[in-house]
Amino acid sequence: MSKNINVALIGNPNTGKTSVFNQLTGLKQKVGNYPGITVEKKEGICKLPRGVKAHILDLPGTYSLNTTSLDESLVVELLLNKNDKDYPDVAVVVTDVENLKRNLFLFTQIKDLKIPAILVINMADRMSRKGISLDIEAMEKQLDTKIALVSTRKGEGIDRIKELIADYRSLSTAPNLDASRISPDYFKNLQKAFPNEDPYKLWLVITQDVNFMPIEKRQIQDATSFFTKSKEELKKLQHRETVLRYQFINDTLKSTYKVDQMAAKGLRASIDKILTHKVFGYLIFFAILLLIFQTIFEWSSYPMDFIDEQFAAASEWIKNTLPPGLFTDLLAEGILAGIGGVVIFIPQIAFLFLFISLLEESGYMSRVVFLMDRLMRPFGLSGKSVVPLISGNACAIPAIMATRTIENWKERLITILVTPFTTCSARLPVYLILIALVIPEGSVLGLSYQALTLMLLYLLGFGMALFSAMVLDKILKIKSRSLFMVEMPTYRMPLIKNVGYTVLEKTKSFVFGAGKIILALSIVLWFLGSNGYSDDFQNAEEIVSERIANEGLSTYSKNYIQTNIDSYLEEVESEGLAPSAVRDSVRTLTADLTESAKAQEIASYKLEHSYIGQAGKAFEPIVKPLGYDWKIGIAVLTSFAAREVFVGTLATIYSVGSDEEETIQNRMAAELDESGKPLFNLATGVSLMLFYALAMQCMSTLAIVKRETNSWKWPMIQLGFMSVLAYVVALAAYQILA
Amino acid sequence: MATVIDLAFGQKGIIKDFSEHVLPIKLLELGCLPGNSVELVQIAPLKDPIYINLNGSHIAIRRSLAQLIELDIVEETQAP
Fold first, then answer.
1. pLDDT, tens digit, for every residue of A403-428?
2. Which of B33, B41, B61 sits opposite A246 (nearest CB)?
3. Which CATH number fits domain B4-74: 3.40.630.30, 3.20.20.70, 2.30.30.90, 3.30.200.20?
4. Nearest CA in chain B to A486
5. Is NAD among the key words of this record (chain A) (predicted)?
6. ipTM associated with this complex
7. In angstroms, what separates the C-alpha of A254 from chain B's closest C-alpha?
């Protein structure tokens, strides 16, 4: 470990820093969070010549050591803290050859911290097209460093970086800019008060609002109180620092960097004209969105069905192979179902991040932010919230994970909190079955009532998200100092490797980050649903068997058997089988159906008397005003696992064995309330739909919110706030319609 | 006094001297310094934000910030 060289990869956003990281480390990388905050920490190992290894830390992209976001503070914190275990032996500063002037700003700052710094000039493959020529040797001399000219796209120059890292001890640590030039008097005093500290480091500690070294910072404030300057004066000095740095950079580039202006005119302008056009811009954006949704729904349904089937089969296999008992049930219905519940999200997360990273890599994402910013502003959000919010219409989990790109913490938090209102795909099965049940067929102006209802539900979700964002913007008192500024990078062909890494990373961070919580909650829900304390539960089988022996099967089961036999008879009629054969098979069929009807009735009885069933019954007075009976109450409770569970729970409770939607729907339509009218009428149906539209019924989302906000506080607030809202709205709807 | 929002498409301006406390340091570091040029590239369909080329950096900023950058507009006399 001690032999590893600590390398920090630093650079402006959009310089291809991540590509450099990927090429240096390959798959030997790991992505996590910095302790206590949700800033991504990427690190990896790189093999250098002569058997040396380097530990590479990919720091968040930053324009300078002047912090305006959590990500940037982190960079400054690390570079100022020599005791940090990640403190770099050498910094690799990645720049883009087209934006060298601006990118060198950060480089000179790093250099002034006296950290050995290597300059990587990336995107070298674009030089000839852009008419850029460099005098590397002269530039190395002027900047007092070693330069690697790199093209990550072509994989050129990576070996040179490795050599330079291995050789880092020979790098000069002299500063580019003599810090005292910023203000000779001020720096003289500083140096006098802290003779052992580096003046530029002191300067950063004073000017930067980083919260990592409270002791050190206080020391400085105390000791230097006699010459501490006002904020305005400090800003004036920072201004001076900026001017001095640019003078130095301009002097350097004047003799070493040439651009042929005629060649520099690129495609950018013409593409921008179309992509940010006031009509075509939006049309293209919506077309891309449509394409994304279409593919997410179409493509991910195959792997999701496959995962579903495999887990069901595995669970069946366990139940048949292992001896029956609590452990087998725990394994088959608790743990395996829980893991299945995590894995089932992978296709959606992977596909969404495939598209998001394609959009980001190509440079298009900035244009979306540019187009949408003004529209989002009345809601306290910016253009950066658009993609997460829209992604929520597929699944809130990847949507919330995508909020990392929002630098402003308040905006990010609001986006995280409101995204679950958008209509995710798990609500669809619930909506579809309820709409089919309670919304009459028929149409107005060629649009069917049922389709209109579905559309209204989508609009309600999105509208609710925006409305709550507006409210939260007013309520939340969070100081955020980030200003809106979006870099519009050059359009580039996405690098498949980078896209692949992003997809892999995001999927891993969901599975390992939120997976544990989801698994734990699944097991709890399974336990509550399959265990009970009452005698009724313990003796469910005898009680139900006895009841069937005395009273026969329930009317529903009888009808169910009859219908199945009728359809069987109809089927064989045309085949002209011998009557005796038909009779025999009808007998076996009846026996089978009776057996499964009995099993279903036992399952239903067990669920009714399980902990969750008891809770549902205890819950009944609370949900009664919404038009629900205890059975719906249980379904609502179990859908806390995930919304689509609603349908499955009702199927179990109504002892409908089949998963076929139509069977469940028919059974629901047949359900009567106390007065003998259909239970699922318009009022109950609408009340339920509104409840599902607004309630936070997804433990996976709660788990990911916990991960992304780094505390249980926000997911709990979210849960409380959304549940109360859902209850009130569903209550009002039912009372008005009933 | 002309500012960035007074620029026409493709028009350039040279940033004037300004008092330090007006603009965020962040903007200065991107090259928003007296004497440097700003070119208006695009305006978002809803008039806000504004997409500029600031000293070689292509960035989008909001109107409210753009209004603070004072400049002398360069009359284009370039041959077509």
1. 988 888 899 999 999 999 999 888 88
2. B33
3. 2.30.30.90
4. B60
5. no
6. 0.92
7. 15
